[in-house]
Amino acid sequence: MRRAVLLLLVLLIPLGLALIPTETQEAIPWGGVTLGEIPKPPVPREPAFFGGTLVCPLPSDPVEMSPFTRATTWSFYFFYPIYDSLVGIDDQSRPVPWLAEYWESTPDGLVWTVRLVKNATWHDGTPFTAHDVAFTFNHVLEVKYPRWSDLWETVEKVEVVDDYTIKIYLKFPYPDFVTDVLTFPIVPKHIWEKVVTAPDFDPFTYRATDEVLKVGNGPWIFEEYVPGQYIKYKANPNIFKGRPFADELLMPIITSPDAGILALRKGEVDQWYWRLSPEALPTLLQDPNIRIHLYLSPYVCHWGFNTWKFPLNIKEFRKALAHCVDKDYVVETIMHGYGRPGRFGVWPITGLFEDWANPDPKCGVYGYEFNLTKAAEILDKLGFKDIDGDGFREGPNGEEIDLELAPPTYDPIRVRIAEMLAEEWLAKIPGGGIKAHVVYQEWKTLWPRIKLPPDDPNKPDTWFLCSSYGTRPSPDIMRFRLHSSKIPNPNYYGFINATFDELAEEQARTVDVERRKEIAKEMQAILAEELPFISIFHRYGISAYRVDKWIGWVPGIMWSVNNGWSWWNCVLREKAVLKPMTLTLAEYPPPKVTPGQTITIKVSLTDPEGEPITGASVEMHIAGIPEVFKFEEIETGVYSITLSTEGWVEQPYTAKIISSAPGFEEAATVLTFELTKKVAPVTFWGAYGPLIVGILIVILIVIAVYAFYAARKKSPSK
Amino acid sequence: MRVRFVLTRFLSLLITFLLVMSAIFFLARATGDPFAEIIEQDPRVPPEAVQRLRQRWGLDKPIYLQYIDFMKAMLSGDFGYSVAYYAPVFEIIKQKLPWTLFLLSTSIVLSTIGAVLLGAYTAWRRGSRFDLIATNTSLFIRAIPHFWLGMVLLLVFGFYIPLFPLYGATTPGAHYSNAFEFIKDVLAHAALPLTCLVMRQIGMYMLYMRSATLEVLGEDFIVTAKAKGLTDREVLFRHAVRNSLLPMVTITALRFGFMVNGAILTETVFSYPGTGRLIYEAIMNSDYFLLQGAFFITSVCVLIANLIADLLYAYLDPRVRVG
User: Fold this and answer.
1) Shortest Cα distance from A486 to chain B (angstroms)?
2) Which of A488, B45, B72, B148 could be joined to A453 by an S-S link, Cβ 3.0–4.6 Å?
3) Is the pLDDT of residue A531 over 90?
């Protein structure tokens, strides 16, 4: 007996020792993420500036009516003003502490301690505590809502340390924990507890009632929602970070983009961003009170290949195809400049998170430059030659090749790309083209075909798809879309690469940001080498907003001005008394500019006393050119820019120059000029020809009508 | 005899109804898989989670079991839950139905009156300048896409001459002190969409009325009526129009039947909260249950409208009763 006790002791002591940490491990402050900044309002958040109704329309009704099932953009917009999260995302897509005051993780990234702010309350006055966070997380862990999978797949358990501290234990290290999990909205325990324990509660079909929605913790209190018509919120006077300047936030539902743009021009709404096409910009730019904001969308519009099917299963063949895509033509000509060419490394998207991008030119936009001769060389080497002399190449064993190109018919840009490939680029490879035909299928027909397994004969050979690659700097999206376990949906390409799979799994568990970047770069190199698809372009998002009523809009790099920061920061212009600024054009181009000519534009800025304003920011938007031109201050109060019109399309241009300086109102001016070749001398017929012909036609019509009636009168009718 | 007529009509109606219901079931399923889209939108959603959603909506079952479920549900009047809205189908349709019914019933009544009067008058004055202008204008209006007509109306009467609001069915966020103000607001918002619908519908149905009247005007009893010395107006409205109204009865009844489907394009252009867009989006989302519910209501309405038209026909035209 005693021996047994002794044995037990001997066994237990090392176990006990193992449980006592030998050295206290240093926690990582902020979990190692780079923090952003909360966008600042134009004036201090004081009662003197409060007032007004901000009108930000929605193009559709919110669909899902619970923060847990929300999936459509409209439902996100609906819940965004009501429920705040622990961490916010700033206008540069970086995390900022919000309801969480501070957080840290253990070095292995498995345990996260989050400290909450102490002065936050729910709309009914109940304090916001760690119990609410634990309740929200536990409810999701229990139900496993599809759209909250980041949370329930990674979180092991949640532990309330005290009212304002919470510990979150993860199942495995998760590098995107802060941006993907802590950004979920938190719901009030005292309200939702009753909801989720109700006997008839069905998590998937629950629709929050007005009473439930009225208790949130966001800057806005829900007031009413009239389906199909509008949603109304009022400012929350007790929000811990300071209330919004506007008294009310109104979201009318406007389903037609044309009516939305008219309402913006009329001043009935304060911003519009949905389906705003580049064609509408010249008119909008002419209005001195309307500003245009271009933002980067996370969609990779690509040419996808079924990599299991001959000849697309040959890597070198896909490389030959890569040399046949003229991305510059797509962006400049088909998209009128309102897009960016895609990278062969796929992620990160051109223009975003550049520090994650593999600097190897092969992974860049022009990794395989547009060069049909190079394509021909590769095809020759592979044995693809035009044997029967029909102008198109056959396979090495004489196989007939006819690639199917399948763009969805609703998108004219992708249809045009497919047509260019079939008629021009693939067809005109020297020494014989590659035969291809465009299949015009409507999305509902095409989409199920794209999702077929790669060995299904009904799957298209190639297709054109725009897929989201995420709004956060996380390469995990490549794993979710291209890991071999994701075949056929969303790895539609049948892409299998063991090294890629391993790297994808490794980065998903790598907390060290630098190491993770290295892995992400290797993954890009593999994609650029294997080419399961070719990323062709990304669209620009366009939003327009009025500045005569509200100032303080926050244009995000990845979102329109219609966002939570704008709603929070917008202040009535008449309340925020700002000094007027006078913008004078000192030098500007003549009305007719010859192509290639260099133009200089110079403006001077003065305050009401006529003193020059220094340190202002002056920029110019030109309709038809997505680039924003920044002026430089060449002497005190005088700003200038010189640009070459080389390569510009010959057409009239409308340019808007906007200047802004702290403490001053914005000033704007519009100038127009036309890019045209030397004007031919005006001849008599050139000037009056159309007029004379027009008058002749009118006279002839009058005679014809008269003759018709005269003839009818004479004829012996009844 | 009359009872038997009503009974046979009713029975054939019932058979049609069952056939239509089966068609709805399979047609809805032809719009694709409602849950497959989730993974493309957000590839992080695990397939198991999608599978759970399928189970929740009973879409994991074999198709014949789904069919039995569907028939049971339809007969008990339960349309199930919308896949996109995660809510009872009837509740969603109910939100938007009043506006559609208001807009469309008003436009049908107005346009039918307009079409009957114009059609009859143009037939009476066939070959006149008025007939020429009216017929050609109606053809012109029929030929232009009505969303374009709507956009032009918006641009002219909403923007350049701001007489009417640009969007919606009421002023967003407005509170009314009395019913009169509310009615005024609703009418101001309905003015442009109604104009658009009525113009188009008059254009469409005036020609039906015109040709029907022309046919009747050739009958002997018109000559008799004229010979009796009746005035033109009496001949036209007491004798000709009454007889030529028969085809209009069927058309109008059917239009009332299809009312639930709304007017997609007009609703979209004027941002009018109606069922037309709802059904369009249901097709785009492959929302089987919402589609089934909406088509169920539509087919019931159409069949009832048909029945009413048949009975009305029999009442108006004694010749039909025999057949």
Assistant:
1) 9
2) A488
3) yes
φ, ψ for residue A313, nearest 5 deg: -75, -10
DSSP state of A34: P
Q: Residue A23: pLDDT band by 50, 70, 90 thresholds?
A: very low
CATH number at residue B265: 1.10.3720.10
| Cβ neighbours around A615 below 10 Å, total | 10
Residue B314 lies in domain: 89-322
At A358, list the tokens: 């593999």
Q: Look-up: residue for tokens 């099932």?
A: A69
The answer to whether the Cβ–Cβ distance between A146 and B31 falls below 8 Å is no
**Residues B103, B193: Cα–Cα separation, whole Å:** 8
pLDDT band at A17 (very low <50, low <70, confident <90, very high): very low
pLDDT exceeds 70 at position A6: no
pLDDT above 60 (res A106):
yes
CB–CB contacts below 8 A, A to B: 138
A-contacting residues in B 84-113 (Cβ below 8 Å): 84-88, 95-96, 99
Q: How many domains does chain B have?
A: 1
Residue B271 is nearest to which of A226, A255, A476, comparing CB atoms? A255
Asked whether residue B22 is assigned to any structural domain, the reply reads: no
Handedness of CA A408, A293, A546, A47 (dihedral sign): positive
With contacts defined as CB-CB under 8 Å, which chain A residues touch B284?
Answer: 444
Between CA B168 and CA A232 the distance in angstroms is 15
Q: Judge if ipTM > 0.85.
A: yes
Q: What whole-number distance in Å separates Cα of residue A701 and Cα of residue A697?
A: 6
- Contacts with B291 (C-beta within 8 Å, 6 or more apart), sequence order: B24, B27, B28, B31, B279, B282, B283
The structure tokens listed for A238 are 């007790």
Per-residue confidence (pLDDT) for residue A579, from 0 to 100: 80
B8-26 per-position pLDDT tens digit: 878 888 888 888 888 888 8
Give the pair of three-digit tokens for residue A96.
């900022």
Cα separation of A261 and A272, whole Å? 7
Tokens of A50: 């409060």
Residue at token pair 């309402």: A263
Report which DSSP code applies to A23: S
User: Cβ B86–A205 below 8 Å, yes or no?
Assistant: yes
Set out the domains of chain A in order of their start, with CATH numbers. Answer: 27-264 (3.40.190.10), 299-540 (3.10.105.10), 578-704 (2.60.40.1930)
pLDDT score at A9: 52
d(CA A218, CA A568): 10
Q: Which of A183, A188, A256 is nearest to A222 (CA)?
A: A188
**End-to-end Cα spacing for chain A:** 133
The 3 state secondary structure assigned to A525-586 is: HHHHHHCCEEEEEEEEEEEEEECCCEECCCCCCCCCCCCHHHHHHCEECCCCCCECCEEEEE
Number of H helices, E strands in chain A: 19, 30
CB contact under 8 A, A207 and B87: yes
Strand (E) or helix (H) holding A5: helix A2-19
Whether residue B276 has pLDDT greater than 50:
yes
Q: Which position has the token pair 């010395």?
A: B229
* Cα–Cα dist B293/B295, whole Å: 6
Instruction: Indicate which of A256, A451, A705, A709 best probes the interface with B, i.e. most B CBs within 10 Å of its own CB.
Output: A256
In three-state secondary structure terms, A247 is: coil
pLDDT exceeds 50 at position A492: yes
Distance to chain A for B282, nearest Cα, Å:
11
- pLDDT tens per residue across span B62-109: 888 988 888 888 888 788 888 888 888 888 888 888 899 899 999 999
